Amino acid sequence: MQPRPNKVFWNLVFVGIIVAMFSLVYLSTSRINYHWNWERVLPYIVNVQPESILAPLDGDIVKDAKGKLILQSVAGDELMDLSKFKNLHVSDGDLVFEGDTLAERSQWHLGTLSKGVIVTIQLSLLSLVFAVVIGMVVALMRLSSNIALRNLAISYIEVIRGTPLLVQIFIVYFFIGTVLDLERFTAGVVALSMFTASYVAEIIRSGIQSIHKGQMEASRSLGMSYPQAMTYIILPQAFKRVLPPMAGQFINLIKDSSLVSVIAITDLTKAGREVVSGSFAPFEVWFTVALLYLILTGSLSWAIQVLEKRLAVSD
């Protein structure tokens, strides 16, 4: 009987390795005399800076008959009711000019990086849906007894998997996109879907072939047609087997989506480049971008694990 591992010891080893890695990063930045400025990154995630309320024209700050502060023009017309603002910078009797700050209003809005995360999620979700649909069709073509369909599927898989995704994005956007008048976002979805579908097709094909042939023969002997047997018997079993490799491919899809920034789609990676040029905090920005990608991929991985457990219970 093997001895049980000392959990406390190995957890301490894990913590020690993590601390050593962060210490190495800190020492590296210290050697190049780099000063961390994380506060510069926060407004690019969620901007909570108050909005300044400016005077539209020259005028006076006076109280009306109800005792409310108003901005009154030189001609005596009411330009703005200031009683609704809490953080006033003016008081009764002040003379203001066009463009002067009258008050501040609390607000918040998503920063550049958060907007980039939303675009990345949209790209990934749409590409994932189309990749699964295309991959399923190509996988069934790959297994078809029709020689033409099978050869078309093999050619598609080999060409797409044998060329870099970056090159495919350029071809889709500059060639196909020009002919079909595709927008940047649409071209990005098309390129990502086609690329991911080639891998999904092989994953689904291997899952279907892992099911014993007797399952199909038994289904056909019960009077089911080939599509019915595939839909109700083979594919549900194959889905459970291919879920882990499919999850890995979907995680790769999220990371691969960063390449669409080369065609000026403001995803998370392009947003990171824009923030670096405006904040002059490259290390902080790219560490934040990496963390945001990790949150996206980690959330997907967790969701897949939950689905796996539920499917295992249903067996």
What does this structure look like?
The protein is an alpha+beta fold and 315 residues long. The protein is 63% helix and 10% strand. The protein is built from nine helices and nine strands. It has a four-stranded antiparallel beta sheet with strand order 5-4-3-7, with no helix packed on it. A hairpin with a 4-residue loop joins strand 4 (69-73) and strand 5. The longest helix is centred in the C-terminal third of the chain and has 33 residues, at 282-314.
What is the 3D form? elongated
- Strand order across the largest sheet: 5-4-3-7
Number of strands: 9
Computed Rg: 30 Å
| CATH architecture term of the largest domain | Orthogonal Bundle
Helix content: 55-70%
Mean pLDDT: 87
Key traits:
transmembrane transporter activity, elongated, ArtM/GltK/GlnP/TcyL/YhdX-like, 4-stranded antiparallel beta sheet, MetI-like fold, amino-acid transport, Putative glutamine transport system permease protein GlnP, 9 strands, membrane, alpha+beta, OB fold (Dihydrolipoamide Acetyltransferase, E2P), 10% strand, 9 helices, 315 residues
Fold topology:
Blueprint: H1 7-31, E1 46-47, E2 51-54, E3 59-63, E4 69-73, E5 78-81, E6 87-88, E7 95-96, E8 101-105, E9 109-110, H2 112-142, H3 147-161, H4 165-180, H5 184-210, H6 213-221, H7 226-256, H8 268-279, H9 282-314
Antiparallel strand pairs: 1-9, 2-8, 3-4, 3-7, 4-5, 6-8
Produce a short descriptive summary.
The chain crosses the membrane at residues 9-28, 117-141, 153-176, 182-201, 285-304. The protein is built from nine helices and nine strands.
